[in-house]
TrEMBL record, chain A:
Key words of the record: Membrane, Transmembrane, Transmembrane helix
Official protein name in the record: Uncharacterized protein
Chain ranges passing through the membrane: 7-27, 39-60, 72-96, 116-135, 147-165, 190-210
Domain of life: Bacteria
UniProtKB/TrEMBL annotation, chain B:
Signal sequence region: 1-20
This protein's name: DUF6754 domain-containing protein
InterPro entries reported in the protein's UniProt record: DUF6754 (IPR046642), FN3_sf (IPR036116), Ig-like_fold (IPR013783)
A Pfam family reported for this protein in Swiss-Prot or TrEMBL: DUF6754
UniProt keyword Protein biosynthesis present: no
Keyword Heme: no
Membrane-traversing stretches: 114-132, 336-360
Native source species: candidate division WOR-3 bacterium
Domain of life: Bacteria
C-alpha cells in the first residue's frame, strides 16, 4: 500500500496532465488550471515550511555541535528571524501594522530585497565573467582533435562578429554566421529531438509505474 | 487620391461572401468571421466587423486592416450572433450582407492535435512492446555512456578518500522532466553511497524537490538495508534564490571538499559558477542537463556530461533493471522510426508538391 498509493496517484495525475492537451473544453481546462495553479501552490506552501524547517534544523545542529564555521549559522538564523518578522508584520512595502522605517530610513521587505539580495545576486552573477575566462582557457587548449576543432571554430566566430574580422576578410563574418546557423543549430536540434522523445518515454515510464527510482527504488 | 475620389463618387464595393462559424477546436467563447475582400481593398483603411444579437441592431465589435479576411470575435457561449463586415475608407462604409445566426460552443476534442496523439500512441506502443519482451527475459544491449559508467568509480573514489559526494538537483521544479530524471539518478547514487558508507550532501533549491529528494534518499538507504546510516540532515533546503543557491553550493564545495560533484537537473547561468568552483577543488564532476544553453559550460568544466536524453536513460543504465532497459530500447526504435519518417517526408516534400509536410503541423 505504501508504494501502490503513490503509484496510483502518479498514474491518475499523469493522465490528468495529458488530457488538457487534447481537450480544450473549459471543464477540463479549468480542472487543469485548478490542479496546477491552486493545488500545487498549496502544496508548495506546505513544502516551503518543511524546507525552511530543514534549513533551520541543519544550522541549529551546526551551532550545537560547533562544526566548522558554525558562527556563520548565527547570521543565517538571526537574518531569517528578522526578515520573517519584517515581512510578516511589516507587509511587502511597509504597509503592515509594524513600522518599517526610522525617519527617512526604510527597512521594509521590498527595500531589503532591492538593496541587499539584488546586489548580492548581481555580485555572484558578475563572477561568471571570470569563470568564463578560466573555463575558456581550459576548453581551448588544443590537446585533441575535437579541442582543436573547437578552438578553430571559436576563433573564427569571435573574429567574425567583431569589425576587425571584416577587415581581415570580407568572408569571415559570413563564415562565422554560417558556423552559428548551420552546424551549431543542427547539433542543437539533434539534442532537442532526443530530449523531446526522451521526455515522452520518461513520462510514460513514470505514469505506467515502470520507472520507480523516484520512490527510492524497490518493488 | 483619384481612386479615393472616384470611389467616393461612384460608391465603395463591400466585402462579399461573409460567413461566420463557431471557431473549431477551441474551448468556446469565440466565433470566426470570414469574407471575400472588397474589390476596392487596395485603397481601403480596413474592415469593420459588426455584430447583432437579433439580426437588426448591429454594433461595431472590431476593426482589422486591409488585405485581411478573417476575424475572431469573443462571444458568450449559447447565444446566437449575426455578423456584417464593412469596407472602410474615411467616413464611407460599404456593408456586406448579414450572416445567419451562429452559436459558439466548447469542443471536447482538439482535432488539430490528433496527429500528435497518434504519434504518441505509436511511440508508446513501441516502448510497451519492448518492455513486454524485457519482462519475458529478453536481454538488450545498451551502448556505453561514459558519464554513467563513471558513477561507480566516482563513488568509490569518494569512499577511498573519505570525502563526501555532493549532489545538486539544479533549480528546476519537481514537474520538470530534468528534475524527475535527476531524482531517479539520485536514488541510484544514494544506494551506492549507502553501500559504501559514503557521506552524501544534497542541497536543494526548491522546497518540493527537497521533500521528494529526502524521501528518495531515505528509501534508498532502506532498500540496501542501511536505514540507520541515513542522515536526515544530508538532504536539505538551501534557498530558492538563484545566485544565493550558487553561493551556498560553492561554499559547501570549498568547506567540505567533496571528492565527487553531481550537477544533474535543470540549470541556468549558475551552472558555470558551480562547475568551475568544483573543478578548482579538484573533484570529479559529473553533470547532466537538457538545458541546451548550459551544456557547453558543463562540457567545458566537468569530467563527464550527460547530454539531453542520456540524462533520462541514466536511471535504467545504473540500475540495469530489464524493464527500464526495454523502455530505452523502445525509445531508440521510436527515434529511428520518427527520424526515418521525417527524412522520407522531407525528401518527398522537397521533390514533389504533395502536402506531406502538413502532417507535422
Amino acid at each position: 500500500m505504501k508504494r501502490k498509493f503513490p503509484l496510483f496517484l502518479v498514474f491518475i495525475f499523469g493522465i490528468l496532465g495529458i488530457i488538457p492537451f487534447l481537450i480544450p473544453h473549459p471543464v477540463v481546462q479549468n480542472t487543469d488550471d485548478f490542479l496546477r495553479n491552486n493545488l500545487l501552490r498549496i502544496l508548495a506552501a506546505f513544502a516551503l515550511v518543511l524546507g525552511l524547517g530543514s534549513l533551520l534544523k541543519v544550522h541549529m545542529d551546526k551551532i550545537k555541535r560547533k562544526r566548522q564555521n558554525w558562527q556563520y549559522s548565527w547570521i543565517l538564523i538571526i537574518s531569517f528571524i528578522i526578515s520573517s518578522i519584517i515581512g510578516l508584520f511589516g507587509g511587502v512595502a511597509g504597509t503592515g501594522p509594524l513600522p518599517t522605517s526610522i525617519g527617512s530610513f526604510p527597512f521594509d521587505i521590498q527595500t531589503l530585497y532591492e538593496n541587499i539580495i539584488v546586489p548580492l545576486g548581481s555580485t555572484m552573477f558578475a563572477l561568471l565573467a571570470f569563470f568564463m575566462a578560466s573555463a575558456s582557457y581550459r576548453a581551448f587548449r588544443a590537446r585533441s582533435f575535437e579541442a582543436t576543432l573547437l578552438l578553430a571554430a571559436s576563433f573564427i566566430v569571435m573574429l567574425g562578429i567583431i569589425p576587425f574580422g571584416d577587415r581581415i576578410s570580407h568572408h569571415l563574418p559570413s563564415l562565422a554566421q554560417w558556423i552559428m546557423n548551420v552546424p551549431n543549430v543542427a547539433g542543437q536540434r539533434g539534442i532537442l529531438f532526443g530530449v523531446a522523445l526522451g521526455t515522452i518515454a520518461t513520462a510514460l515510464k513514470i505514469i505506467l509505474g515502470i520507472e520507480r527510482a523516484w520512490l527510492g527504488g524497490g518493488e | 487620391m483619384i481612386a479615393i475620389f472616384l470611389t467616393a463618387l461612384f460608391g465603395l464595393a463591400p466585402p462579399s461572401n461573409t460567413t461566420a462559424y463557431d471557431t473549431p477546436n477551441d474551448g468556446g467563447g469565440s466565433i470566426t468571421v470570414e469574407w471575400q475582400l472588397s474589390p476596392d481593398d487596395a485603397i481601403l483603411e480596413g474592415y469593420e466587423i459588426y455584430r447583432s444579437e437579433d439580426g437588426i441592431d448591429f454594433k461595431k465589435v472590431g476593426f482589422i486592416g486591409k488585405n485581411r479576411r478573417v476575424y475572431k470575435d469573443e462571444t458568450e457561449d449559447g447565444k446566437k450572433y449575426f455578423y456584417k463586415v464593412a469596407a472602410v475608407i474615411d467616413t464611407a462604409r460599404a456593408y456586406s450582407e448579414a450572416t445567419g445566426g451562429v452559436v459558439s460552443s466548447a469542443q471536447w476534442i482538439d482535432l488539430n492535435k490528433i496527429n500528435i496523439f497518434i504519434a504518441l500512441l505509436i511511440f508508446g506502443s513501441i516502448i510497451l512492446y519492448f518492455i513486454y519482451h524485457a519482462r519475458r527475459g529478453k536481454e538488450f544491449y545498451l551502448r556505453e555512456i561514459a558519464g554513467l559508467k563513471a558513477v561507480d568509480d566516482a563513488v568509490g573514489r569518494a569512499t577511498e578518500m573519505g570525502k563526501p559526494i555532493l549532489y545538486c538537483l539544479g533549480l528546476g521544479y519537481v514537474e520538470d522532466i530534468a528534475t524527475i530524471a535527476s531524482l531517479n539518478i539520485l536514488g541510484e547514487v544514494a544506494k551506492k553511497c549507502a553501500q559504501y558508507d559514503t557521506k552524501l550532501i544534497c542541497p536543494n533549491a526548491d522546497p518540493i524537490v527537497y521533500t521528494v529528494a529526502r524521501e528518495i534518499v531515505k528509501e534508498s538507504y532502506t532498500k540496501v538495508g542501511r536505514p540507520d546510516a541515513f542522515d536526515p540532515d544530508s538532504v536539505y533546503f538551501l534557498t530558492r534564490s538563484q545566485f544565493a543557491y550558487a553561493a551556498g553550493v560553492d561554499g559547501i564545495m570549498m568547506r567540505e571538499r567533496p571528492a565527487t560533484n553531481f550537477f544533474v537537473g535543470w540549470f541556468y547561468a549558475e551552472s558555470l559558477i558551480l562547475a568551475e568552483t568544483g573543478a578548482a577543488t579538484g573533484a570529479i564532476q559529473i553533470a547532466g542537463t537538457d538545458a541546451l544553453a548550459q551544456l557547453p559550460f558543463f562540457v567545458t568544466a566537468c569530467d563527464y556530461t550527460l547530454i539531453g536524453e542520456e540524462l533520462y536513460a541514466a536511471s535504467a543504465y545504473i540500475s540495469k533493471e530489464p524493464l527500464l532497459l526495454g523502455a530505452i530500447k523502445g525509445e531508440d526504435w521510436g527515434k529511428l522510426i520518427i527520424g526515418t519518417v521525417l527524412l522520407i517526408a522531407s525528401v518527398i516534400g522537397l521533390l514533389t508538391k504533395l502536402p506531406v509536410l502538413s502532417i507535422f503541423k
